[in-house]
Amino acid sequence: DAFQGKADATLTIVDSPPADDNKPALRQTREENLMFNSAVSLNPGNYKIEMRNQQQKTLAASSLQVPQHSSRFVVLRVGNEAGKSSSLIEHGKPAGFPEELIVFQSNAMSGMPTHFLVAALSTVLALILQL
Fold first, then answer.
1. Percent of all residues in the chain with a pLDDT value above 90, rounded to a whole number
2. What is the pLDDT of residues 47-100, one digit of tens each?
3. How many CB atoms lie within 10 A of CB 2?
């Protein structure tokens, strides 16, 4: 979670049928809340990651296809609420950036531990936001 602000969004993972599947779903769609700053294990399949507000309205969503072989994915909530305590200044006023969801596969750097990759990416985002 690299978001700076008071917004209370939650992450939810939802079963999603394959995009090329024209058949009606034979099973009930499952969904489960994801905790920020945590790791989960997923079975191969198609999923959708949703960021929701307190009223359960979907603010952002991203599809996720987990292959048969092991893969690592990183899900980040990024953004910055403009406020008096914001260190980001634009035209003399506190600057804000929208709350967004980033989902990417990290097995391109298979030798690097995922927590290191998340820490490095969060640091880079924080530095960019400080500019």
1. 2
2. 999 999 889 999 888 888 888 877 778 888 888 777 655 555 666 666 677 788
3. 19
- 120 — phi, psi (to 5°)? -65, -45
The answer to whether residues 87 and 130 touch, using CB atoms and an 8 Å cutoff, is yes
- CA dist 53 and 59 (Å) reads 7
Question: Which residue spans within 1-131 are E strands per DSSP?
Answer: 2-4, 10-15, 31-34, 45-52, 58-66, 73-80, 89-90, 93-94, 97-105
The strand pairing partners of 8, in sequence order, are none
In this structure, are residues 117 and 106 in contact, taking their beta carbons and an 8 Å threshold? yes
Closest CA relative to residue 86, chosen from 75, 96, 77: 96
Cα distance between residue 119 and residue 54, in whole Å: 27
Per the confidence metrics, is the pTM higher than 0.70? no
d(CA 89, CA 52): 28
